[in-house]
Amino acid sequence: MISKRTAIALASCVFGLGMILWGSRMGSEAPEGNAASSEAASPAKPKKSKPAWNVALGDVVVFAPELGFHVKALKDEAPDTTRLAAHIEAQLGELRNRYRQAAEAHPGLMGGILLQLNVGPGGEVTNVRDIGSRIPDSEFKKSMIEAASKWNFSELIASPVVITCPLVLVREGMDITTVI
To answer: N or C: the chain end with fewer CB closer than 10 Å?
Structure first.
C-alpha cells in the first residue's frame, strides 16, 4: 500500500504534467487564431517580424529602437526612420568587435548607452554625445563614441539631422527581451 505522501506527490505530478500539456496546446493554437482574427480586422497591415535572437552570437552590441530611437530634422523633412535604423544596425560591426574585446578583459561589462549623433548635410557624423548611459567603464564609453563618430549616412541623409541612438550591451546567453 502506498503512503499518503506518495499518493499526493504522484497526483501533483500528474496534475502538473496535465497543466504543461494543456498550456503548450493553448500556446500553439493561440497565434493562429489571433493571426486570423487580426487579418480579418485589418488586411492592409503588413506583418512585422522581429529578428530572432541567436544565443551563439556571444557578447554583442544591440541597436534597441524601442528604448528611444528618434530622428529630428534640423531643416527639411526627416529621413525614413526604418531605413536609418537598418543602416545603424549595419554599422555596428566595429562596436561589436570592441565590446567582445573589452568583455574578455572585464567579464561584468554590460549595460546600455543613449547616443546623440549630429549628422551633417552630406551624411557625415559631425558630433557624438553620450546623453545617458549605464556602462561603468568610462574608457569603453569613449571607445563607443569614437566608433560611432565614424558612421556615415551619406546615401540616406541630405540635410542635417540629430539621431538619438539607443544601444544595449548584451552578454552571451542573456535574453535580449529581458534586458530591453
So the answer is: N
- CA 130 to CA 61: how far, in whole Å? 16
**What DSSP element (H or E) covers 150?**
none
Residues 6 or more apart from 84 whose CB is under 8 A from it?
A: 71, 153, 156, 157, 163
Q: What angle do CA 95, 70, 43 make, to 5 degrees?
A: 110
Q: Cell numbers 569613449 correspond to what residue?
A: 142
Q: 33-72 b/e with 16+ CB inside 10 Å = b?
A: eeeeeeeeeeeeeeeeeeeeeeeeeebbbbbbbebebebe
Task: Say what the pTM is.
Answer: 0.65
For the segment 3-55, what is each residue's pLDDT rounded down to a tens digit? Answer: 767 656 655 655 555 556 555 555 444 444 444 444 444 445 444 444 444 54
**Three cell numbers, residue 77:** 523633412
Which one-letter DSSP state was computed for residue 124?
B
Distance CA 9, CA 31 (A): 34
> Is-contact 170 60, C-beta < 8 A?
yes
Rounded distance, CA 95 to CA 166, Å? Answer: 13
Q: Which stretches of 42-133 are DSSP H helices? A: 81-90, 93-105
